[in-house]
Amino acid sequence: MSSKQRGSQPGFTDLGFAKVDLDRQQRCGNAEVIFGEGKTAQQIISISQVLHDAGQPILVTRSNLEVYEEFKTRFPKAVWHEQSSIITGQPLKLIKKKKIDIAICAAGTTDLRVAEEAALCAQFWGLNVQRHYDVGVAGLHRLLNSMDAIKTARVVIAVAGMEGALPSVMGGLLSQPIIAVPTSVGYGVGQGGQAALHGMLTSCASGLTVVNIDNGFGAAYAAFRIIKGS
Amino acid sequence: MSSKQRGSQPGFTDLGFAKVDLDRQQRCGNAEVIFGEGKTAQQIISISQVLHDAGQPILVTRSNLEVYEEFKTRFPKAVWHEQSSIITGQPLKLIKKKKIDIAICAAGTTDLRVAEEAALCAQFWGLNVQRHYDVGVAGLHRLLNSMDAIKTARVVIAVAGMEGALPSVMGGLLSQPIIAVPTSVGYGVGQGGQAALHGMLTSCASGLTVVNIDNGFGAAYAAFRIIKGS
Amino acid sequence: MSSKQRGSQPGFTDLGFAKVDLDRQQRCGNAEVIFGEGKTAQQIISISQVLHDAGQPILVTRSNLEVYEEFKTRFPKAVWHEQSSIITGQPLKLIKKKKIDIAICAAGTTDLRVAEEAALCAQFWGLNVQRHYDVGVAGLHRLLNSMDAIKTARVVIAVAGMEGALPSVMGGLLSQPIIAVPTSVGYGVGQGGQAALHGMLTSCASGLTVVNIDNGFGAAYAAFRIIKGS
Amino acid sequence: MSSKQRGSQPGFTDLGFAKVDLDRQQRCGNAEVIFGEGKTAQQIISISQVLHDAGQPILVTRSNLEVYEEFKTRFPKAVWHEQSSIITGQPLKLIKKKKIDIAICAAGTTDLRVAEEAALCAQFWGLNVQRHYDVGVAGLHRLLNSMDAIKTARVVIAVAGMEGALPSVMGGLLSQPIIAVPTSVGYGVGQGGQAALHGMLTSCASGLTVVNIDNGFGAAYAAFRIIKGS
Amino acid sequence: MSSKQRGSQPGFTDLGFAKVDLDRQQRCGNAEVIFGEGKTAQQIISISQVLHDAGQPILVTRSNLEVYEEFKTRFPKAVWHEQSSIITGQPLKLIKKKKIDIAICAAGTTDLRVAEEAALCAQFWGLNVQRHYDVGVAGLHRLLNSMDAIKTARVVIAVAGMEGALPSVMGGLLSQPIIAVPTSVGYGVGQGGQAALHGMLTSCASGLTVVNIDNGFGAAYAAFRIIKGS
Amino acid sequence: MSSKQRGSQPGFTDLGFAKVDLDRQQRCGNAEVIFGEGKTAQQIISISQVLHDAGQPILVTRSNLEVYEEFKTRFPKAVWHEQSSIITGQPLKLIKKKKIDIAICAAGTTDLRVAEEAALCAQFWGLNVQRHYDVGVAGLHRLLNSMDAIKTARVVIAVAGMEGALPSVMGGLLSQPIIAVPTSVGYGVGQGGQAALHGMLTSCASGLTVVNIDNGFGAAYAAFRIIKGS
Amino acid sequence: MSSKQRGSQPGFTDLGFAKVDLDRQQRCGNAEVIFGEGKTAQQIISISQVLHDAGQPILVTRSNLEVYEEFKTRFPKAVWHEQSSIITGQPLKLIKKKKIDIAICAAGTTDLRVAEEAALCAQFWGLNVQRHYDVGVAGLHRLLNSMDAIKTARVVIAVAGMEGALPSVMGGLLSQPIIAVPTSVGYGVGQGGQAALHGMLTSCASGLTVVNIDNGFGAAYAAFRIIKGS
Amino acid sequence: MSSKQRGSQPGFTDLGFAKVDLDRQQRCGNAEVIFGEGKTAQQIISISQVLHDAGQPILVTRSNLEVYEEFKTRFPKAVWHEQSSIITGQPLKLIKKKKIDIAICAAGTTDLRVAEEAALCAQFWGLNVQRHYDVGVAGLHRLLNSMDAIKTARVVIAVAGMEGALPSVMGGLLSQPIIAVPTSVGYGVGQGGQAALHGMLTSCASGLTVVNIDNGFGAAYAAFRIIKGS
Fold first, then answer.
1. Exposure string (b/e) for E4-15, b if CB count within 10 Å is 16 or more?
2. Closest-approach residue (CA) in chain C for H188
């Protein structure tokens, strides 16, 4: 690689392959999160080092066990969260306040990978999480059974693949903010999550908002933006 | 136009621009139905004449008032059904048996155009029709309120645009055959009915079947095939 | 039309072509809003009558002047809002509190049709609205000039067509909830709003949420859900 | 994972990652079927245990040999059906009534994977199955040769990839219900089954219904819904 | 318009807005044909004048009555062919040889617009045309009834909308070259002719070739290329 | 409309519905151009007034005759350019230098609408334009005949609809910058210009760049950026 | 597997998983060809045995070396053709007539896999083949250099990936039948061959016909249909 | 393989599987570059040999380590550039002029693979390269910090995946030519780079041009065309 200015700049540190954004927490409320997909273990470690040196917390999404093995040689306290493919720089301290902040609902068992990405990120940022999994509309009684609990939440995240009908039904029963997360679960015309995404965007229920397919992280971040300002 | 053999052939009558299929009723259970879109009034009348001469009933779908005006100069008893854009050769005799055969459910008011195409065709073929309109999932109590009646039907047709979640919810509550009809109602990613179609095909409820977007006629025909063999 | 039970039911009134949902306000926080597209003037008036008789406010979106002319013969106080194609049952009382609730930002002049749908709905539900129009990223100084005001808002709605980059840039500068609304403004690959929609869903800024193309109403409703719970 | 209520609930058993729907048989006519794709062997075994304890039959679709090896250590009577990738909790008892219920037709040899999924599910639910394989329209005499047998069936399932013309031709020759199943067999524009799906949905034959690409299970379930009510 | 060299060039005449290709007949076997869509009447007349002055025949496709009215003030012998939207510079002399060259088959009445474009172009270039219209696969006996005649043709053009299954069935019954023409007839997923196009391209019958949607002209030209070289 | 700060701001003038960017010329080399589509005549006039008052030139693209009629009541010297649907605030002074700057090539007559948008914009910004129209690859001698002239240009703009092969062929014959402009000319799979766009993006010729479908303005602007820096 | 009638039927042999079409040669001119993709080695061998016993030639496309190894234990004379992934039952006898029948042109080296599938199939059916490879339009002189030879061919097959411009250019220079074969060569918007396919279908050259992406076999078969009838 | 003329031809060398274009440098300014994807190591070496024998430089893109290992046995001075997957026939001599020619900007770390393909190709052709990596719009201060340097460049290449907003923002701040390169970085609706591509084509900033997804080579070539003519 060639002639590039590296080192500290106003608001970021330049590593050549990355300019780590150190004042994001101040601007947006949360420190930079490392999106692991497509980055080498060494790149992830270098970025983490910058965050660590600046006293900021480390959260790596879309990672894998192999990266983690290399990662923990440098950050021995780091923890691997298998279901959500997340590395956190420190073990997660779960909050046990009475008031529950977010209800994360998932339509089916295969949606858990995405739901847990949302749940873990939310917990990392200090939010309390209710989990309601496998409450898809094909067995409505399972959803209705959880409804009293869900109504106490400040924000609802509804995760679903296939036709993605779960947020539509919830939207007609609740007055809270609902963030819909389509997943790539399904096959045929549902493959890739487009059917769920389009279903959520065209929902007959009013006032749902939607994030990208499989973007559990983004849903948690959006919930954080809502709760932070409350 | 050129050298073509016209007139009666085994099983059909050749008009040059059309070969009217006169033994379809015997093969498939129903006489040929005239799909009006893209045909001139004169073509529709000529085909109708062949059916009439063969003693078969006349049903024209996807027509319009202008065609009807010309049509009734030749077939004065013909009736125009505005909401479904259908011409029938005769006024429809509604069946009032106790046993109800088909329940036609529509998610919203703007889906009625399609639902009524299904309803009218079904009635034309001698089936009894329950109508449950505006029972979309955004107000679940409206659907649940109709559920006892729907459970008595032999076949259910579920019509919905936008995200098309209605058949998914019904599929989890019923054991009858459910024919899902996506409609082109909606805008943005839902425009054209693709979102509803894909949602119905990837439904988490088991054993739904689907017809083309806005194809109320086809859904009624499929219901007829089921009931005829019962 | 046929044998249907009409009249009052638990929680809704059945008009045959529509089941007006009278307890939606209680469940979801806002009364039913009439989506005008594809409904006849007469259907809109009948539904409005039910809402009016139940003491609920009337809001019709995606309407047109012709419908309005017929509408006001029945509801003489109704007002036509041209830029947003909205009918309200009553003149809108604008709130002039000091605290501003929503900032609605639009990238270009041709996005105003959608931005004003959001703005008017929000005002109808009692929210205060800042308007920042024509702040697209091609002239960044225009957006930066409005930033101090926008930072005081509780929720931000960012409306953009074409490539839809506005919410991405705002997402990196703000910590509030941001609801991105793609519009169908553009041509070529942007036609229909798909490019803006996809751009917003894949934004490099974290925690944006998105609604359907041109869905100003839905964005306002989502903002209402957030503010109502604050 | 966190604070979740597990155990028996009205109508389902909560395993945390799944809420097994125990009254589906009563509502929809068939017990819950386990969709194997994306579930771990351990998850499949846990769900099967719940069904088994409730005296319900076990059927796992889209599984693989590796899962089966682990599965049979817990359920030693379980059988692996290779061509359809299905695990059944018990060996299948084939019905040999005179009256044949379903005719399953497949256009080509490579469609058998899907056709057999349909056939096996149907047999699992007690239906009798005729198999007519490799009867695609490129050699019409093969199909016509089977037609007398097919006409005796109560329901027809027509499985085809590539252009998916088989159900169109059959629709013009039969009066029974026909459930069309597009398969992902093909390449180029046919890849993924979209061409077959769209062909079946736009068929010139009347009253066909369609399920998702490769959804042999769904077709069998739809046939079951029809026959159950006959 | 600006500084452009107009007038005669080697092999073409430059009109500024068009360079009329005068040696195409020599290179490709047929004189330039004027594609009428998007050209003004005046542009069409100017190009026709160049062809006329060079002693070449005039054929305008995708035209309309309004253009024709203006056209015939300059070329009084010109003829308007309504069903195919074609203008020919001279009345067409139909060839009545015994040997029939092309069989043009159309699946339905609404496909005639395209079939007649093919038929008229073929006749313009001196080919003899058999017409077999409304022989879609939903009534197979109609097609089979024409099969003896079709087998005598040198080339077959098969025109179909919706699922476009006609060429697949014909491909399995014939050994001649078959040119498949998808049409934009249909609605829902078939709208625009994509379903027919994809069906024809993925046909299970071997050795079909396909032209663009609604391209009757192109199919006739391809047939001409085949016959010219025989 | 509501409480908005209007009037002069640093670098722009705020009209409420538009913030006219007055220092764009300094930043990007050209003054703001008014995209006429979707703007009212009154909006266009107001924006033009701001530009005029700031001593900047007025160029309106994608306009129409009706807007122009209203426009010239305020700006009597304004000129309507029909083929390109452009309004210029002043008559265009054509430059007659010897050195030719841009060669604009169009594949067919129906592509002229787009080619002329490019040509007029380029001339408006002081560039000299060669026009080579109807040089599509179906008659290669027409293109080769123009090649000597084209080779003298500093930048080449290649406009083509349908399959868009023109820039590929030119790319293999020239060493200059080539900006490819796909047009929406065509039908069937070419409709909308997607086929041409994709063909240009995947060209086997190296170093072509592409703008949006029908974006003649953008191509001219890109050419301007290149020439300005030479 | 279950109760199926196997054995000889009129015109085909039923193997249960396949009905081998033995009179295809009589109907369509060529014996059944085995499409290897998705079939097991054992299925391919069984079908080949039926063809062999009927004295028909064996041709397997889309196969692989592993299948061939098993295949030749049963048919020791069988030959593996690596570049085209074809197995022939016998070594190919190349025809060396003076008169050349087919010219197969390929735009680039990576298109050879498809071009060779066409070439080998054509040779298998007794046609003589010219090969002109790497004659893409980015270096027009390479194509023009081959043009004299190509003009002597009876039929031309033009194979190209990426933007697929080769057949367009050839169509303007030749009067023979041209069969265009898009390939899946390319990346980005060209990935999968859609760009090439669409380009060929919308070609500005008249009378091209097109087959499915990568379908070299189909192009050869279409050429065979043309030549057989000459 | 069969009867093909190999060896030297006017302007190219025929290897049978490839016709190496030896006068491309003269026509287009740069020698032929070998696109490695889909070519065997042996094919790449043979083509390289022809270039080498003609005294032309060797550049292989989209290669891999395995090919390189075989390649260097024949060309021992060849160098493998891992991040860009490029082989150069010789070590690259970096130019250290004062005047910087190209600024290559990348939005994120995972876009470097594409950015480096552009950078290396540009350096291979003698251009000087500035690198500005990880300057995506989510942290605008990082981009603004580099702006003074970027303004000195003759041409700007802007590489971005996901929503691809970087070139839009840069287009509003710069007057140079900007070549936008979408990358396939992202997931969900961004997968494959379509969202970035469409965003760049519909950018609200004027005069951007775009190349195919991941086409760093093409962007560098386009920059070369611009600079060569300056």
1. eeeeebebbbbb
2. C202
pTM of the model: 0.94
Q: Which residue of E has its CA nearest to D164?
A: E199
> Which of G11, G16, G214 lies closest to D188 in CB terms?
G214
Whether residues H164 and C140 touch (CB distance < 8 A) is answered with no
d(Cα C4, Cα C15) in Å, to the nearest integer? 9
Beta-bridge partners for A118: none
Q: Which alpha helices (H) appear in E29-155, and where do they start and end?
A: 41-53, 65-74, 112-124, 140-150
Angstrom distances, CA of residue H138 to CA of A6, A211, C107, C168: 20, 17, 17, 6
Task: Output DSSP code: residue A28.
Answer: H
Structure tokens at F37: 């589509």
pLDDT tens for D68-97 read 999 999 999 999 999 999 999 999 887 666
Report which secondary-structure segment, H or E, holds B150. Answer: helix B140-150
From the list B11, E204, F23, A182, the residue with the least C-alpha distance to G32 is E204
For A149, phi then psi, to 5°, come to: -65, -45
Q: Which segments of D90-215 does DSSP mark as H helices, in order?
A: 112-124, 140-150, 166-171, 194-201
What residue type is H70 in one-letter code?
E
Q: Closest Cα of chain C to A1: distance in Å?
A: 25
- Length of chain G in residues, anyone? 230
- Contact: C38, B135; criterion CB under 8 Å: no
Which residue does chain E place closest to B12, by CA atoms?
A: E142
Query: Can you say whether the dihedral through the CA atoms of B136, B139, B144, B145 is positive or negative?
Result: negative
Q: Residue D106, SS3? A: strand
D4 touches chain A (CB under 8 A): yes
Give the residues across from B34 on adjacent strands. Answer: B60
Query: Chains that contact F by 3+ CB pairs under 8 Å?
Result: C, E, G, H
> What Cα–Cα distance (Å) separates residue A141 from each residue in A124, B169, D4?
32, 11, 17
Residue F94 is given by DSSP the state: -
Q: What are phi and psi of H62, to 5 degrees?
A: 45, 45
CA F203 from centre of chain:
22
What pLDDT was estimated at residue B75? 97
The distance in angstroms from the start CA to the end CA of chain E is 46
Compare E101 and B5 and report the one with higher pLDDT: E101
SS (HEC) of chain C: CCCCCCEEECCEEECCCCEEECCHHHHHCCCCCEECCCCCHHHHHHHHHHHHHCCCCCEEECCCHHHHHHHHHHCCCCEEECCCCEEECCCCCCCCCCCCCEEEEECCHHHHHHHHHHHHHHHHCCCCEEEEECCCHHHHHHHHHHHHHHCCCCEEEEEECCCCCHHHHHHCCCCCCEEEEECCCCCHHHHHHHHHHHHHHCCCCCCCEECCCCCHHHHHHHHHHHHHCC
Interface predicted TM-score (ipTM): 0.93
CA distance H155 to H144: 17
Q: How many other C-beta atoms can be found within 10 angstroms of the C-beta atom of residue D94?
A: 10
SS3 label, residue F35:
strand
Strand partners, D86: D81
* D216, D158 contact by CB (below 8 A): no
Question: How many residues are recorded in chain A?
Answer: 230
pLDDT tens-digit series, residues C15-56? 999 999 998 988 988 999 999 999 999 999 999 999 999 999
CA angle, F50 then F53 then F56, to 5°: 85
Sign of the torsion formed by the C-alpha atoms of E40, E45, E50 and E52 = positive
Residue D27, classed as helix, strand or coil, is helix
Q: For residues G136 and H35, give the distance between their C-alpha atoms in angstroms, rounded to a whole number.
A: 14
- Report DSSP letters for A164-228, one per residue: --HHHHHHTT--S-EEEEE-S---GGGGGGHHHHHHHHT-SSTT-EE--TT-HHHHHHHHHHHHH
Closest CA to F44 of F4, F90, F88: F88
